[in-house]
Amino acid sequence: MTSNTPLPPCSILLLAGGRGQRMGGRDKGLIEWHGEPLIAHLHRKTRPLTDDLIISCNRNLEKYAPYADRLVHDDDGAFPGPLAGIRAGLQVAHHRYLMVLPCDVPRIDAALLHDMLETASQHPDKPLMLRHGEHWEPLLSVIPVALRDTFESAWQDGERSPGRIMRTLGATALQCPDNDPRLANLNTPDLLSAHDGVAD
């Protein structure tokens, strides 16, 4: 349940830099759902929360540019995974917190985004991840930007799992119901079709 507590200023990072292997190599953020690219749904829901909207993308930069205040990309052209995008976002974020969201969760809602920020502000030195059941969602998280050097050190030491880093740092869990429809990860053609009749 949301409250009237003012939300802390945050930067928001939308992850759209993957290979799109489950989508046959297509650029996932630009695939249409309900008549709009997936990235447009995330942009509309996050734009009211920040003046620092960042998109991590590795191709089609000109198509993503209208949806962001700035773009970042991996410094390795081999698509090294989401931690690379998170590193890039942490390096440029203007605010104390960086909210991280993947581009393929168009059903996330304002109440959950609000709860993520509000809960993160109650544990200001720890990352926050959504969790349903025993499953953590490291790509639905809020990271204190003060931890950027910790993430960078882990990367340089060979770590590639953002979830493992955050759990090591004692991450706060924001528990969601099992099968919460707001967390539906529309990352295959079948899942996009299955949710096609459901409003975002």
Characteristics:
two-stranded antiparallel sheet; 7 helices; single chain; globular; seven-stranded mixed sheet; alpha/beta
What's the CATH H-level homologous superfamily? Spore Coat Polysaccharide Biosynthesis Protein SpsA, Chain A
Strand order of the largest sheet: 5-4-1-6-8-7-9
The coarse silhouette is: globular
The helix content, as a percent range, equals 25-40%
CATH domain class: Alpha Beta
N-C termini distance: 19 Å
Discrete helix count: 7
| The CATH topology | Spore Coat Polysaccharide Biosynthesis Protein SpsA, Chain A
How many domains make up the coordinates?
1
Count of DSSP strands = 9
Biggest beta sheet attributes: 7 strands, mixed
Derived from helix and strand composition plus strand pairing, the structural class reads: alpha/beta
Strand content: 15-25%
Summarize the helix and strand pattern as letters. Answer: EEEHEHEHEHEEHHEH
Rg (C-alpha, Å): 16 Å
Low-confidence stretches: none
Report the CATH architecture.
Alpha-Beta Complex
User: Average pLDDT across residues?
Assistant: 88
